[in-house]
Every structure is written in C-alpha cells, then in structure tokens.
Amino acid sequence: MSEGITGMTNRFRYERRHSRWYEALLLGWPFQLIVGALVVVGLPAWERWEWGFWEYFPPVRSNTIIACLLAFVGILWTLRRMHRFPGARVSALIAPTISVAYLLVVAVLFFSREEYTRQVLFTSYLMSLGWFYMAFFLGRRYRRMKLGVVPVGRVGELQPTPDIELRGLEEPDLAGVRYDGVVADLHTDELSPEWERFLARCTLHHIPVYHVRQIQESMSGRVRIEHLTENEYGSLLPSLRYQSFKRFIDLVAALLLVPLLLPVMLATALAIRLDSPGPALFIQQRMGFRGVPFKVYKFRSMYVDHEGCGFTEGEEDPRITRVGRFIRKYRLDELPQLLNVIKGEMSFIGPRPESMELSEWYERDVAFFSYRHVVRPGISGWAQVEQGYAAEVDGMTTKLQYDFYYIKHFSLWLDILIVFKTLKTIATGFGAR
Predict the structure, then answer these.
(1) Among 112, 139, 166, which residue terminates a domain?
(2) Phi, psi of 170 (to 5 degrees)
(3) Which of 170, 186, 220 is the last residue of a domain?
(4) Of 18, 50, 3, whose CA–CA distance to 178 is shortest?
(5) Domain range spanning residue 129?
(6) Which of 392, 279, 268, 397 is nearest to 332 (CA)?
(7) Total domain count for the chain?
(8) Which site among 50, 87, 95, 179 is 20 to 30 Å from 392 CA-CA?
C-alpha cells in the first residue's frame, strides 16, 4: 500500500506544468482552429445571409467563405510559428499579420475576377482582430514558460525574459512545483550522479530537459560562436528547397516594387545631388553569396572627399551628409539594392554584406566568419532588427551570432518576422547610423 502511495506522490511531484485541461484547451491548436473558425468565418456569414446559408452556395458565397477560412488558418499558423522566435511580441504582430492575410485573399479574388461579398470579408477581418487579441490576453498568463535550473556549470549566464521564468533548484527534486522543463549544463563536470538521476526521472515523466546553450539561443536569438564546433555542420545547412522558393519570391516582389518606388528613388537621387557634390549612387564591391564578390548599389549618404576608417563610426560620423542622415534613418539609401535582388546577388532578408576589406579582416580574426556566406546577403536581416546598425568592428562578434541564428533557423516564418520588424524599424529609425 505504502509503495503505491509513494509512486503516486512521485508522479505528482514530477508533473508538467501545462498538463491542466483548461490550459491545453485555451492554447491548443484544435480549439483555436475549430472555435475560431466558427467565430471568424461563421458569424459574419450568418449575419449577412442568416440561418440556412449553407443550404445554398452560389459562387459569391463559397468564394467568400473559403477566402475567410484560408485567411484565418494562415493567420493562426503564422502567429504560432513566429511566436517561437525570441523578440517576437505576438501582440505587436497580430494586426499586421491579419491585415496582410486579408489583403492577400482579396488580391487573389480581385485579380482572378471571382465574385465575393465585401461586407462578409470586412466583418470577418474585424472578428479576426477581436478573436486573436482576446486569445492573446486570455492566454498570456499561461504562455510564460517556467523552467527549473540545475545550479551547476554555465547556467548563471541565463537571464529571465518576459516569456521565460527561471527558478533555481536547490536539490534534485521539483518539490511538487509544476515546471515546463528543466535547464542544465549537460557538458559540465560539476553535474553529480544525483543530478543526472534527477534529469533522467524528469525525462521519464515527460518533463523536457534542455541544455543551457539551447535555452540561451532561444532567449537571445544568437548562436554563440565559440560553441559552433559542437554542432554538426549538416544541421546548420539551410534548406535548398526554401532557398529556391525564396529566390522566386524575391524576384517577383522586386519586379513589383521597382515601378512603385521609382518616384521615391528619383526624388531621393535629386535631393542627394542638390545637397552635396558627387554622384547619387554609391557603388562598392562586397562579399556575397558563397563568397563571390559583387557590386552593391546604394544611394550616396556621405561626402565624396572625406576619408574614413572603412566603417561607419556612429550617428555623429562627420562624413555623413544632411540628406544622408535622413535617408539612412529611414533606410531609403538601400532602395537601389532592388537591382541586386533582381540580379540574384542579394535577397530582401539575409545577413548584411560586408565590404571586401572588412570581410578579409574578419575572416582572419573571427572564427567561422565565412560561414555566413552560405545564404544570400540581404537588404535587411535578423542582426539589423535585433541589434541595430552598430559599428561593425565593435559589434561584429554579436552581429555574427545573430547571423548564425538566422542561418540555423532559416525559414519562411523567421523571414516574415524580420519583415514586420523591418517595417517597425523604418517607422522608428531604430539603429540608424
């Protein structure tokens, strides 16, 4: 009898925090998909066509309902995937994600000349905003991970974030507290047999055990350079299939943006010529995809007769012109790189290309620097939206850690997150130099 009670006690003491039914229901994919679809798609259709609307489905109704459903599923899937990345504040991503999804389905319906009901689509859009914001605020208290920390090795470097709570464990026992997982430095010699048995018991009770480096990456959005040798290079190779898909999207988007942005580019070029003597364009050779040099095109933002150190010295760099300071702040100087994207030398999203001089310098002094060339360089990147445009020499190690994180998590979802963060950067001028 006592043995059975002990077993029950151990099971309780090693129970995962997110095993309660109402938490799983509130945050679970099936609940949000089924109930959310009924609210976001069903209610607008019922309000417009009343009861029994499903008994008669002319094209105008079926097209509208399918469009609303596709938009809703795309929003739900995108938000859940982007939430995995550090710095992805879901509350700030909800409105732009919903707006883009509905604009896409409306564009498809418009250009395909299919019939649809604007009232239902607009009502569904408003219902989506209400549904996802309500789900975010109701589920916010359950989304913060609670991790137990084994107090040995390099775990002291971890710092809590708004999304992750860290609790140090005083002994090899969870003491009846529910945790989402346990963090330990699995490579340290300080890990005693007692702590190893404790981690084994956690695994047996389906409580995830994370290595400290894994949590560091997920919290900081950086892959530490000195730990790169512990990874298999094959696991860090970006998907060739996604690279091909991304190249197609880059080409289509660039060809569509060039005529739309041409008036802005002409006005910028004129302002540069009137502000200071010299050409409107700045052309420089930089290190590109797979280590192949290429010429990058930018609007000139510096005086032509000022010598510098080879890198931007900060916001007060005397070489920057008055117009140059403005176009740098709002990234207008990057617009000519649309030509680089069309030529296949760059992507919209990727590690920023460095000059040949700096690239050769970094390759000598920074381990694994050349590995960042495994993907196409980008107009914007993970390092730029997270770190800002810091002075290259002082911040190169940190920038490279962000670049490695991007390569390791190379995906559509991370690119979408970077696009949203880039738009915020353009609006606020964060990290301008």
Answers:
(1) 139
(2) -85, -25
(3) 220
(4) 18
(5) 2-139
(6) 268
(7) 3
(8) 87
pLDDT in tens, 122-169: 999 999 999 999 888 877 666 678 899 999 988 888 888 877 889 999
The alpha carbon of residue 250 and the mean position of all alpha carbons in its chain are separated, in whole angstroms, by: 17
Between residues 235 and 157, which one has the greater pLDDT? Answer: 157
Q: Do 369 and 389 form a contact (C-beta atoms < 8 A)?
A: no
If phi > 0 it is left, if psi is from -120 to 50 it is alpha, else beta; for residue 310 that is left
Query: Is residue 127 domain-shared with residue 12, that is, in the same domain?
Result: yes
Per-residue pLDDT, averaged over 277-300, amounts to 93
- Establish if 226 belongs to a structural domain: no
* N-term to C-term CA, the chain: 71
**CB–CB of 128/98 below 8 Å?**
yes
Strands 281-287 and 293-299, sheet pairing: antiparallel
**Which percentage of the chain shows pLDDT scores above 70?**
82
- Tell me: pLDDT of 1 over 50: no
Burial letters 206-220, b for 16+ CB under 10 A, else e: ebebbbbbebbbbbb
Q: CB 230: neighbour CB atoms within 10 A?
A: 10
Residue 233, classified by CB atoms within 10 Å of its CB into exposed (0-12), middle (13-18) or buried (19+), is exposed
Burial 270-282 (b: 16+ CB within 10 A, else e): ebbeebbeeeeeb
Strand pairing class (181-184; 145-149): parallel
Question: Which residue, among 333, 340, 291, 335, has the nearest Cα to 312 in the 3D structure?
Answer: 333
Query: For residues 96 and 87, what is the distance between their CA atoms, to the nearest angstrom?
Result: 16
What integer pLDDT is reported at residue 31 of this predicted model? 77
Enclosing H/E stretch for 418:
helix 412-428
Contact 105, 71 (CB under 8 A): yes
Residue 375 phi, psi (nearest 5): -125, 160
Crossing angle for the helix pair 322-329 and 240-275, to the nearest 10 degrees = 150
Angle at 122 between CA 119 and CA 128, to 5 degrees: 135
Question: Are 385 and 267 part of one and the same domain?
Answer: yes
Listed residue (161, 144, 142, 152) closest to 199, CA to CA: 152
